[in-house]
Amino acid sequence: MKLTVLHYPDPRLRLTARPVKEVRDATRQIADDMLETMYHERGIGLAATQVGITKRILVMDVSEDKSEPLVLINPCILDKSGVIESNEGCLSVPGFYEPVRRASRIEIEYLDRSGKRVHAEWEGMHAVCAQHEIDHLDGKLFVDYLSSLKRNRIRKRIEKQRREIA
Amino acid sequence: MARPAPPAAPPPRLLATRLLVKILKRGLPFDRALLHEHANPFVHELLYGVLRHYFSLSERVSRHLQKPLRNKDFDLFCLLMTGALQILHLRTPAHAAVNESVDIARRLGKPWTDKLINAVLRTVAKDTFEGQGIEAAFDHPKWLIEQAQAQYPHHWHDLLLANLTKAPMCLRVNATKTTREAVLETLQRNGSPAVPGALPSCIILEAPMPSEQIPGIASGELSIQDQGAQLAARLLNASSGMRVLDACAAPGNKTAHLLEHTPGIALTSVDQSESRLQRIKTECHRLGLPTPEIICARFEQLAWWDGRPFDAVLLDVPCSGTGTLRRHPDIKVLAKADDLQAHHQSQKRLLDAAWRTLKPGGKLLYSTCSMLKRENEDSVQALRTRSDAAVLDMPQIKACGLVSIETQSGVQLVTTPQGPDAMFYALFGKRA
Fold first, then answer.
1. CB pairs below 8 Å between A and B: how many?
2. Is some CB atom of chain B closer than 8 A to the CB atom of A97?
3. Same domain, B131 and B195
4. Complex ipTM, two decimals?
C-alpha cells in the first residue's frame, strides 16, 4: 500500500524514531510499503519518519533500474571519514536541491529484512543516502545544513505552494 | 532522499558564447551547434544573429577596445558581440545586456572584465557609429560583395540585404501520401497557420516551429525543404520506368522528392559519405518510399558504374552554399574566396563524369545552392559548347513565379525576403 509522504515543515518530521524491538511480519509490511512509496515518488531513499511512522526503519535503492532495494532496520553509523559535497534533494522537500557536505565513506551496521545483523562499508551515493536517511530518524532534515536565509526561503516557497493548491 | 537532479542547462548566453567560439575557431559545423541538447530558441536566435551580423558587430566591438583582445580571450570577444547583438538588434535595454554579460564573464572565469564589458557595451549602445567600410555596411565579406557587384550590377545591394533576413520555413508535401489541401487544413486546425508556396508541393509556415511539433513530419507526410530546392524534381521531370541517377545524393532530400514526384522510377543514389547515405534510408523509410539503389563511391571516378546509361541525371554538386546564407550565416565568416576555385574545378569534373553516364536522348539537370557565377554558369560552360549537348528550356521556373534571372545556360534563382534560397539550375539534353 502506498503511504503519504509528509512535507517540510510538518512538525512530525522533527520526531525522534524509536528502535525496532523485533523484526516481525508487521515490520516487513511497513518496509515493503515504504519501498513502494519511494519508487512511486521516484526517490532513492525513504525513512519511516517521512511517512509518519516513528520507528527506526529506512529503505534505499540508488540503482537506475530499481534493482538494488535495501531495507535497513535500527541502522547505526560506526565510523565516518572523508568529505563529499553533493546536490541533495528530499521527498519531504520536493523540488529543491542544495549542496550538502557529508562524510564520503561510512561504516554501518543494521538489521536486514529478515532480522539478520549486517555490517557494511559504503562510499559515494550509498554513503550520502544512508546519512541523509538516518538524519530523518533523528528528526533532522538536509535543509538544517543550509543557511537560515536559504532554509527560510525554501519553507516560504513550500508554504506558498500549499496555499495555492488549497 | 530524492534522486539527484540532472545538471541544470547552462544559461542561453553562456551556451551561445561557447558555441560561437567552437564554430569560429574550432571548426564545429553550424548545424551541429544548433542541435546542442540545451540549445533553445533563444540560443538559436543569438547564434544566427551574431553570425548574420558578424562583420558589423565585430567592427563596432573592436572599435571600443583600447587594445585588441588576446587570442585566448576570444570567448570574451564572442560574449561582447552577443551583448552588442542584443542591444542593437534584439531591443534588449543596455543595462540588462551589460548585466547579463558581466554575469556570463564570471562564469567564463574572467571576473576581471566587468569594467571592460561595461565600457564597450554602453558605448556601443550610445554610439551612432555604424561601422565604416563596405563589410560592416552589408555584413558580408569583401570578396563576396565584389563578386555580387560584378555579377548583379543593379541588384547586388538588395540581394545581399535579403541574406540578412530570416528564411521562411518551407515544407514539402509527400504527394504519395496526402495532398497539399489536406495538410493545410490539418495545420490550420493545429493552430499553426500556413500558406501554399510557389510550387504545388510547397507549403510555407507563417511562423517557424521545431520540426518535431509539426504534425505530419513523423508520419512521413511532410519534409522540410526550401522552395528553390523543390524545383529539382519538377525540372528533371522523369517519367515512370526511367532509369534515374542522383549523383551527389546525400543526405537525400532531393532523392526522396524524386521518388515522391514520380513513383515507378528506377533510382540510383550515389554519394561518397557512408554516414550521410544512411540518412537516405531512414528518410525513405519515414516517407514510405521504396529505397533506391544506394552506392557509396567517389562519383567522378565512375568505378562504381556498370556502364548501363541513365535516362535522366540529377547532379546537385557540392558548392559554397552562398545561396543559403540566411540559413547558414556561418558561411559568410568562414568561407574564403579561394574555395570557389576548388569548387569550380570539382564541379567541372563531376559534370564531365555525369555526362558520360547519360543515355543519348536523355537529360541532365545541374544544380547548386550558390549565387555565384563561378560555380554556376562558369562550371557548365564547357558542357554547353559540346556538340552533343543542347540547352533545354525550363518553363516551370517562369510559371511558378519565383524571382529569377536567365543566364546563358540556365536560370539563377535569387533570394528575396520570404523567397527561396538562391539556387542555380541548368538543364541539358544529350543529342542522339
1. 36
2. yes
3. no
4. 0.77
**pLDDT per position as a tens digit, B218-273:** 999 999 999 999 999 999 999 999 999 999 998 899 999 999 999 999 999 999 99
Taking an 8 Å cut-off on Cβ atoms, the answer to whether A129 and B1 are in contact is: yes
In a domain, B248, yes or no: yes
Cis upstream peptide for B7 (omega within 30°): no
Residues B133 and B85 in one domain: yes
CA distance linking residue A62 with residue A64, whole number of Å:
7
Find chain B residues with C-beta within 8 A of A87's C-beta. Answer: 4-5
Q: Which residue of A has its CA nearest to B6?
A: A87
Q: What's the CATH code of the domain at B173?
A: 3.30.70.1170
The owner of cell 490539418 is B186
Is A141 near chain B, with CB under 8 Å?
no
* Reported pTM: 0.76
Strand partners, A59: A46, A71
pLDDT tens, position by position, A37-56: 999 999 999 999 999 999 99
Q: Rounded to whole angstroms, what are the CA distances from B48 to A106, B65, B90, B93, B170?
A: 52, 24, 12, 20, 18
Q: B3 to chain A: which residues are within 8 Å by CB?
A: 42-44, 89
